[in-house]
Amino acid sequence: MELITGATGIVGLHRAAWLLERNLPVRALFRKGSDLNRCKAFIDARAPGAWSRLEWFDAELGDPHALEQAMQSVTTVFHAAGKVSFEARDADRLFEVNAMGTTHVVNAALAAGVENLIHISSVAAIKRSGGSSLESPIRESVEWTADGGSGASTYGKSKRAGELEAWRGAAEGLNVFALCPSIVIGAGNFRVSSGEMWSRVAAGMNWAPPGASGFVAATDIALAAGNLLDAALAGRPGIWGERFILSEGTHTFDEVLGGIALQLGLEPPSKMPPVWLLTLAWRPLELWSRLTGTRALLTRDMMQTATTTVYYSTEKLTSVLPEFKFKPLEEALAETAPLFSR
Fold it and tell me: Is 163 helix (H, G, I), strand (E, B) or coil?
């Protein structure tokens, strides 16, 4: 039995579908107020007839007792629950969910006798100081400095803290490996995280930031987790105790947002504001957000991400899974579009 935390999110939902497609038992955590109708529509599309086999369990990350109860008879925990935000006002909540939430998950897993933990971290949890290039991409081995290095967001710091808790679990007896996805492309909740790109394009967003980043299909995250777990349980070395970057490649935001627009039958973004304008704009926009209590259209961390070009290496993953091939961006966008609801 595998337990998925964050099962109503993009990554967790794709992992649930992957397991159900293979007739494997899966238990999924949800919180009160979660939109299970949206989840059912996704599962019905991906694994027709499998919804009744998906066991839902009501538990919050902040409730250690409920987590331990949810992990009874569980062999593997796929920990995908987390919060994504680049707003300064969410700093405390980011650490509460991404760091302390992982503490509770690890403690519950140890208490319940769980054997394996697949921890979903992020490329944001990897130090970025010094930049990157095609010839010198960011790798899993770069050392994290006290402040995370230049370009480290509060979100990245909270994910790094959560990953350290996963490694603490490894030191205390769990089999652990961590996955560090880049920006995720996939169906799920289109109102938050990377899914919001679809909603913004559908709402008429006509500009794209000048930067570029790594992107990966949510289906590839589910597949990589399954292949790595199978290989590790079969005795393949170099998996337990390791972290793996997952990224199909680096693409400009203009290319990605334009691809989303194409899939939705809309005009692609036609404007690209210069870096200097975004650098000036984030301060008043973030201040306005704090004064009004509304979501910020642009923050410092958003600006840094949107104006930087980042390259990632996936050589470590392919060294242990030489047969693994990432899904091209165009294919990831095409399979996501039919499940987008405006």
Answer: helix
What residue numbers bound the domain in which 238 lies? 2-204+213-248+311-339
What digits encode the pLDDT tens for the residues 114-164? 999 999 999 999 976 566 787 889 999 887 765 555 568 899 999 999 999
CA distance 132 to 148: 15
Q: Give the span between the Cα atoms of 36 and 259, in whole angstroms.
A: 28
Where residue 19 sits, what CATH number does that domain have?
3.40.50.720
Q: Is 38 left (phi over 0), alpha (psi -120 to 50) or beta?
A: alpha
Residue 97 belongs to some domain of the structure: yes
127 found inside a domain: yes
User: Quick check: 110 pLDDT over 60?
Assistant: yes
Residue 150, domain member (yes or no): yes
Separation between Cα atoms, residue 78 and residue 24, nearest integer Å: 14
Question: How many domains does the chain contain in total?
Answer: 1
* Residue 36 within any structural domain of the chain: yes
The answer on pLDDT for 107 being more than 80 is yes
Exposed, middle or buried, 129 (CB in 10 Å: 0-12/13-18/19+)?
middle
pTM of the model: 0.94
Give residue 311's identity as a one-letter amino acid code: Y
Indicate the pairing of strand 175-181 with strand 243-246: parallel
Residues 6+ apart with CB under 8 A from 44: 51
